[in-house]
Each structure stands twice: as C-alpha cells, then as structure tokens.
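Sync notes, pocket subgroup
Present: LS, DG
LS reminded everyone that the earlier model was apo-only. Rerun requested with magnesium ion included. Inputs:
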Amino acid sequence: MFGGLKAKLQAARNRLGSSIQTVITAPAAGTGALREPAPELVAVSPTVPEIPGTPAKPTIVDKFKVLLIERELIVSDKDVADALSELELTLLESDVALPATDAIIAHVRKSLVGKHRKIGESVDSLVVGALRDALLDVLGNGFDLLDYIRTHPRPVRILFTGVNGTGKTTTVAKIGSYLKKQGFSVVIGAGDTYRAGAIEQIAVHAERLGIKIIQHPEGGDPSAVLFDTVQYAQSHKIDVVLADTAGRFHNKANLMSQLDKIKRVMKPDLVVYVDEAVAGNDAVIRAFEFDKTIGADAVVLTKADMDSRGGAAISIAHTIGKPLMFIGTGQSYDDITPFNPAQVVEELLGDA
Ligand SMILES: Nc1nc2c(ncn2[C@@H]2O[C@H](COP(=O)(O)OP(=O)(O)O)[C@@H](O)[C@H]2O)c(=O)[nH]1
Ligand SMILES: [Mg+2]
C-alpha cells in the first residue's frame, strides 16, 4: 500500500533538503535575507561508512541529511519554490485531490520558509518534520470504531452505502469478523434486496463467520429487512447491527429516496460510505456527493492493495471533512486495517 507515493515523497524530501542545503552553504547574497555564512554551520558526515579501498564519497543527499543547523537559518519562498512545485506535481500525479494538495503545499511552505533556530537539527529532519505535519493535518484523526461502540448505547447501528461493486458487502463481512474477534456480538441485515444473488452472497459470508443474518426474499423493501434486523438486535442484546445495502449513485433520485427511507426506519448511528481506493479522485468526488445527498459519518476505502498511488486515502478526509475509518487490503476477511494516520505517515516517510 502507498508504495508509489512513498517513493515519490522520498524524492520530494531529498529535493527540498538539497534546496535548503544550498541556502545554508551559499554566501548571503541576493535576497536580502540574513543568512549565516557557511563556517557557522558544521557539515559533518560521520555516518557515511568507509568501504575499504574505496574512498567514501557522500552523495548530495547524504550530505544534507547530516548538515546541522547550528545557528539561525533563513529560508525564503524563492529558495524552495521549485522543490515545492515538484512536490505539488508529485501529489497531483498520485491522485491527491487539489484541495488536499494545496493544503499540504501551504503547510510545508509555512514550516520551511522563515527563520529556523534549532541547534543540532539536521536539514533532513526539518524537511521530514514539515512533511509529517502537513500530511497529519490533511489526514485528520481517523475513526476508532471500537471506541465508538464501547461508548454508545447498544445496539450500535451501522449503515453501509456507496456505488456498485466497490466492496460494501465484503466490507460488512470483514467488519463483522473484526468486531466478533474483538468480543462484540454482531447481526447483519441483508439490505441489498435488489441485485440478484446479493442476499445469498452476504448470507454465505455470515454463515462462514458464524454471524446471525436477517434476510427477506429478493425484491423486498430493504427498510423492512433492516427494521427487523434492529429489532432482532434489541431483543437479543446484540452489540452491533451491520446493514448492507444495494449499490447506487447519488444522482439516482428513486434509489436515494429509498436510502432516505432506510435511514428514517433503522435510524443508523453511523452511515459509512464505502468506495475503492483504486478509483482515486473519482472516489473522493463520489464520497463528497454522497455526503451532500444522504450524509456520511465515516469512510472505508477498499482495494488499497491494488492502489499504489494512495491519493484517495490521503485526500478523502480533508476533502469531505469526514474521517477515514478502515482500509480494505484484499479479499480475505482479515484484509481490513483501521486507518491510523500517524502510522500511515510513518510508513510514507520512513526510511525502510
Ligand atoms: N483486492 C481487493 N478486492 C476487494 C476488496 N474489497 C472487496 N473486493 C472485491 O471487490 C468485488 C466487489 O465486492 P462486493 O463486496 O461484492 O461489492 P459491493 O457491490 O459494493 O457490495 C469482490 O470481488 C470483492 O472480493 C479489497 O479490499 N481488495
Ligand atoms: Mg453488495
């Protein structure tokens, strides 16, 4: 996951670092900024290993990674302009939505431009710190479903929505399995009464997972099935109701009014919008439209295993203002990961 974006961010980080290194080593000229002359800064490269027989020749990247900011460093807008334009392009190419890209660039610029006086900090940690803060800012806080369930009256009712084929039914099964392993009791409502075979599909998952399912015949009213599911949960003291629904587009008025009715009848605590990470910016736009039309409290992005660009995962929370809750990473029940922004940022910016 995020493999492509990670490599690109690494390149952007090196590029930003070397443009700041140029500021440090260049004589104070031109911009009028007060810069420390080179002798005030210590360029040390003790970490570059000596290979016997070959004199170690640190690359420019190695150099700036250990170049320490000893006194005041002043970076101007102009110094990082080219590197920031490259970062912008990198993000857009990775399908990061424009508003999220703009926010990241503005944040990095704000962190880097101006005065820095951090004794002993390396240029690289200055750059990584700027990128980390910018990414954390757009990724938001995530959504801890376990904590939500623990702190809300039972049964917690969760309604899954989205367009066709994005992985709603699979996600309902995966989350059912995840919650069961965490010790919660679960009932699934087979709310896709529309597509042929949909009821059987979710019923097979439920049976494999040992989870109770409530179903009506194909073609029935999904509100009625989900109403029955909630009633079952109430009378059996079940912790969580997971409601599957048929896929639909936000601009199909009749299907959206059906969803509206479902909401009125089952009164979900959470409406979860499911889309696929591989759809990139399209997923972000659809999530935005869905949220506007029917509302969404959190998002799940599936098929992240098939997406190395990572753009949708980076931009969705910032663009629609709703947290990303889980990432789907494959076809097995365990292929689901709670979205943890700090972990994702470490993965993206880590050296490994
Ligand atoms: N690779 C991969 N495939 C997935 C993931 N989630 C769902 N799928 C597959 O996507 C297809 C559609 O899933 P389904 O749950 O039926 O979508 P729905 O129409 O939204 O209910 C199925 O073949 C799933 O196995 C995922 O995280 N990774
Ligand atoms: Mg389905």
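DG: The chain has two domains: 3-139, 145-349.
LS: The domain at 3-139 is CATH 1.20.120.140 (Four Helix Bundle (Hemerythrin (Met), subunit A)).
Action: DG to write up.
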